[in-house]
Amino acid sequence: MIDHILQALPALFSWDVFLSMLIGTIVGVVIGGLPGLSATMGIAVLIPLTFSMTPLGALGMIAGIYNGAMYGGAIPAILLRIPGTPAGIATVFDGHPMALKGQGRLALKIALYSSAIGGAVSAISLLLLAPPLASVALKFGSAEIFWLAMLGLTTIAVVLSSNPVKGLLSACFGLVMGLIGIDQMTGSERFTLDSMYLVGGVGILVLLTGLYAIPPAIDLAAKALLIRAEDLRRGDSGGREPMPWLRLLPTWCKSSVIGVLVGIVPGAGGNIASLLAWSEARRSSKQPETFGDGAPEGVAAAECANNADNASSLIPALTLGIPGNAVAAVILGGLLVHGLLPGPALFRDSAPVTYGFMLSMLVTSVLLIFVGSIGARLFISVLRLPALLLAPMIIAMTFIGIYSIGNSLFDVGLVAALGVLGYFMEKLGVPLAPAVLAVILGPMAESELRRSLLISQGNLGFLFSSPISLILVSLIIVMLCSPLIKRFLSRRTGKTLSEDIAKKISND
Question: Of 242, 295, 352, 466, which residue is 20 to 30 A from 206 by alpha carbon distance?
Answer without folding.
Answer: 295
